[in-house]
Amino acid sequence: MRNIxxxxxxxxxxxxxxxxxxxxxxxxxxxxxxxxxxxxxxxxPTGCSRTxxxxxxxxxxCNFKSDIxxxxxxxxxxLNGNLPFDVVVTDCMTVNDxxxxxxxxxxKEYIYRIVASPVRNPFLExxxxxxxxxxxxxxxxxxxxxxxxxHDFSAFCSVGSNVQxxxxxIFNAEFSKKDDLVTFSIEGDGFxxxxxxxxVGTMLYVSQGKIKKEDxxxxxxxxxxxxxxxxxxxKALFLNKVNY
Amino acid sequence: MRNIxxxxxxxxxxxxxxxxxxxxxxxxxxxxxxxxxxxxxxxxPTGCSRTxxxxxxxxxxCNFKSDIxxxxxxxxxxLNGNLPFDVVVTDCMTVNDxxxxxxxxxxKEYIYRIVASPVRNPFLExxxxxxxxxxxxxxxxxxxxxxxxxHDFSAFCSVGSNVQxxxxxIFNAEFSKKDDLVTFSIEGDGFxxxxxxxxVGTMLYVSQGKIKKEDxxxxxxxxxxxxxxxxxxxKALFLNKVNY
Lengths: 244, 244
Known about the structure:
The structure is a homodimer of 244-residue chains.
Chain A: E1 2-10, H1 27-39, E2 46-47, E3 56-66, H2 72-80, E4 87-95, E5 107-116, E6 129-131, H3 137-145, E7 149-152, E8 167-178, E9 181-188, H4 195-208, H5 216-222, E10 237-243
Parallel strand pairs in A: 3-10, 5-6
Antiparallel strand pairs in A: 1-3, 1-4, 2-3, 5-9, 5-10, 7-8, 8-9
């Protein structure tokens, strides 16, 4: 039995996230369908994380076990021949038996994109939010730095998740700007439900002066979701990198 | 009466090009509808060029005459408030009475994008063509250089156009590559019907060895459409810059 690690890239616009569910099209489902086409077996791939409805992935990893005999490179072609245009397998490797796409993940990087301009960018309608007013990047970066380190991020977690620990380590969190496009990058050993989107919503409140840039520490310590900002829209969020 | 010059950006995926026509949605039509909303007059804007169905514009210019009293900046907001998400007015200026968006255009730049990779890029499905095999950029650039200058480009013009002259001046034509994305840029004083797409199709034939890289001169001189390559798909073409 081979343990096969796939790397994907997908446009999440038309999907209800990664995780399979009834009455909705998900990335896990269309990938399982493609795997069934080439292996003739019903096999559910294990993802590195769940992504929400509308969230995209520049890089997403998953693994599945199969006795398929095709070489790795041929698996890429065979799966891509059976996947819709918006989900693409970019790499395939046969890995150790005990490799697990979720548990073995050392860190993930997400990016969140904001078109900061009086006018919209029609090409980024499904891939960024539009923010009409000037953004105070310096204040947002001052605030974002306070996220770095190991903290209980309950204040940045949507109600309804049931994880064992709400402690996560953030390695890096930073806004950068190129022309009209502001990109927030955040890397951590893991993320709670909606955590990146709540962080972005909080940082936009910092830019607007609704939350003081010095207050992120206190919001973390409060462990109270009500003290953080709103959950920013999903469509601008990309899982950007997965490290093992 | 003011003469108003608008600069647009649009995603052409959902449009049958710029030019108004019956039974099809065009950019000119949705813009005319928005102009009517704010001026209460039926006014047809004059475009800098026609773009084909599915072709995009990072920059497109058009002008219209109206006695509207709104300041230029307010016209941008008012029009954007009445346009669909995929057509955006990025600038507005009141110009001389005799300014004409098409006749006064000194040069235009188009770009054409090619994902040159064994796997597709799901995010560029409507904005680039996918080319699975290695591209010979050096040969294509050697061929493209022969386009520069003033020539009769009949060989690179689709049948069915009725222009007075088929002579055009090309200032620059070059392929560049960044990671998997190959971009062809071409600037000229004007372009014949499907000219850029036929040039790209011809350059792909050069890369494949189906047309010799030295033969572009002869193809131009032949004035025979049959000697050039096929017309490349519309979705990867962008009007990128318009100079007055």
